[in-house]
Design goal:
The protein is about 70% helix and about 0% strand. The protein is mainly α.
Length: about 600
């Protein structure tokens, strides 16, 4: 009985250990089935299209009017720096692991299979919900141009009045998704060409907006006095002011610098989308150079565009008169350029088109990568004669179309934010693990743990120093989560400098600094890549903090919905993926071959 218990316990330990099995970057016998046809310029267009969406036409006005005023340009600058931190982590992995799968694959080769599946499942959630919501926005923008004929007709004929469901099935948005899925399934080069055209039109329209804004703008709109706001008429042109609304105290920072930072948290989501570049590892020429270049350049272009549009908008019109839903058409009407609103509508549709292509592009690549590794159903890993994952492309398109037909997407958009922030966080963690990984080319003796060893480690990374870093990373994650929760719950008392809150935040901050110093003292792996994240370990840890803080801001209902999605994913993994894992088969075959080799060697020794 005792022997059986020990055997059962050993099996459980082996199973738990198998959940952390890692995938080799280049498995023996695996060849890419995808076509390498993309250039660095295609990747820049893909990244710009994915990030520079409708936010450029709406978000700047909403943030300026409600939380930041003219300092919205600073909000975008802070948000861009935060996004670039995450982008640099993706860029290094793109140079080190030039394969399809993005954060899913990065976590698989670094921390193991279960974590990789969770990451991939998060990415699928994020991409599919974002595709559905962008298609819905495209449909709504087009419907506005034809005076809401579609919405009125569908509300009368196919109304759905149930909690969690859409007001009516948006057949136009669903058809748009399937049309683009068909284009993506037809050919990679053709899809990239279409995306480049939409992106070029979008950038031209934004350039027109920026130039027009600086021509018609008035620098005095950045220095509005508090008296001017108080004395402003309730009716300015066609814009109506609400007497109960808080418009701040005027000036460049009417809501204070804390308002600017709050705006930065909102603006950060405007830069989400560059990660689609990381899924092109097997479809781009010279990926080690092109992927980092595409990520960095696309983020810089987006920064200039958002910075320029928000500056032009707040120069054209006092921030408190901006329309939160359609700020640019109202601003052009305010300065007497009413026909310009048609150019804005064209640019908005092109921006939504590139955003939709940008978010639909990576979904089948993640599905394909997970199916190729055996963690999702095998048919999703098949490619067409044109070297496109057709089944995965059409399946992901059908899932997004189904969602846009039935569900109230406003309730689901925050869930997609969790998926994105989770992936960004894990990529930053993986960078730390990878850069401080033990050097396999360095023969070293085992070392016991000592406090002195933390601050005076050996000159080359060993198993001990790598383990030290991994332990400290876990501590950092715990401290960052606690600090994020504390900051989100006590921001007012912190602003009032209450001693208890200041002490708690100070202790957590000092713990975080000490952890950074310990990691900084450890030796880094000597393996080089075409691009490497600078300022280790500070930059990845700052990225982790930003992403965790943003996740903490989301409401309880969002986390409950997210938990349901993750429960479904774990059922899929433990019911299918863990048994069909290709890496599991590789390890079994390797062990079998090792046993055969040992038997042959013993037979030779016996014969001798």
């Amino acid at each position: 009985m005792e022997a059986a218990s020990r055997e059962t316990f050993a099996k459980v330990l082996r199973f738990i250990g198998s959940l952390s099995r890692k995938r080799p970057i280049e498995p023996e016998g695996e060849e890419s089935a995808l076509c390498r046809c993309l250039s660095a310029l295609d990747l820049v267009a893909l990244g710009v299209g994915g990030s520079l969406g409708a936010g450029a036409y709406v978000l700047s006005g909403e943030v300026a009017r409600e939380v930041a005023g003219p300092s919205v340009i600073v909000s975008f600058l802070v948000a861009a720096v935060a996004a670039i931190f995450a982008g640099l982590c993706y860029a290094e992995f793109g140079a080190r692991v030039p394969k399809t799968g993005s954060a899913y694959l990065y976590s698989y080769v670094t921390v193991g299979e279960l974590c990789a599946f969770v990451t991939g499942w998060n990415l699928l959630l994020s991409y599919i919900i974002r595709a559905s919501s962008i298609a819905k926005a495209w449909s709504g923008t087009f419907d506005d141009l034809i005076h809401n004929v579609m919405a009125a007709t569908l509300r009368k004929s196919t109304a759905m009045d149930s909690p969690g469901l859409a007001l009516y099935p948006d057949f136009f948005a669903a058809a748009l998704i399937m049309l683009l899925a068909g284009i993506l399934a037809y050919g990679m080069k053709e899809s990239a060409g279409l995306n480049s055209i939409f992106t070029a039109v979008n950038i031209l329209v934004l350039l027109f907006i920026i130039i027009a804004g600086f021509i018609k703008g008035d620098i005095n709109n950045w220095h509005i006095s508090e008296d001017a706001i108080l004395n402003a008429t309730l009716h300015a042109g066609n814009v109506t002011l609400n007497e109960t609304t808080d418009y701040g105290v005027g000036g460049f920072f009417p809501f204070g610098f804390d308002g600017t930072l709050a705006g930065a948290a909102t603006c950060f989501y405007a830069f989400v989308g560059f990660d689609c570049i990381a899924t092109t590892g097997e479809e781009v020429r010279n990926p080690q150079r092109a992927i980092p270049l595409g990520i960095v350049v696309s983020l810089l272009i987006c920064l200039l565009a958002y910075f320029g549009v928000s500056a032009a908008l707040t120069l054209m019109m006092p921030y408190y008169l901006l329309d939160a839903h359609s700020p640019l058409p109202v601003a052009f009407e305010y300065v007497g350029w009413e026909p310009a609103k048609y150019a804005v509508s064209l640019g908005s549709l092109c921006a939504l088109s590139t955003s939709l292509l940008g978010v639909m592009f990576p979904t089948p690549r993640v599905l394909f990568a997970m199916a190729r590794d055996g963690l999702l159903f095998q048919p999703l890993g098949k490619v067409s004669s044109r070297q496109i994952p057709v089944t995965a492309t059409l399946s992901s398109g059908a899932a997004a179309a189904f969602m846009v037909l039935l569900f109230d997407l406003k309730a689901l958009v925050d869930m997609s934010s969790i998926g994105t922030m989770f992936a960004y966080t894990l990529v930053a963690v993986c960078i730390l693990i990878l850069r401080y990984k033990e050097d396999s080319s360095f023969v070293h003796r085992s070392e016991p743990f000592t406090l002195m060893g933390l601050l005076r480690p050996p000159s080359r990374p060993t198993h001990r120093t790598s383990k030290n870093v991994n332990i400290v990373i876990v501590i950092i994650l715990f401290v960052v989560i606690v600090l994020s929760v504390v900051l989100s719950e006590t921001v007012d008392s912190l602003w009032r400098r209450e001693p208890r809150t200041l002490l708690l935040v100070s202790v957590l901050a000092l713990t975080l600094v000490l952890a950074l110093v310990i990691i900084w003292r450890q030796p880094q792996n000597t393996t080089k890549a075409a691009f490497m994240v600078p300022l280790l370990p500070v930059l990845p840890v700052v990225s982790i903090f930003i992403n965790v803080y943003l996740m903490v801001q989301l409401g309880g209902e969002t986390w409950i919905s997210y938990a349901v999605w993750m429960a479904v994913g774990l059922v899929v993994y433990f019911g299918y993926g863990v048994h069909h894992s290709v890496q599991r088969r590789r390890l079994r075959e390797a062990r079998s071959q090792m046993n055969i080799d040992n038997l042959n060697r013993n037979a030779v020794d016996s014969a001798g």
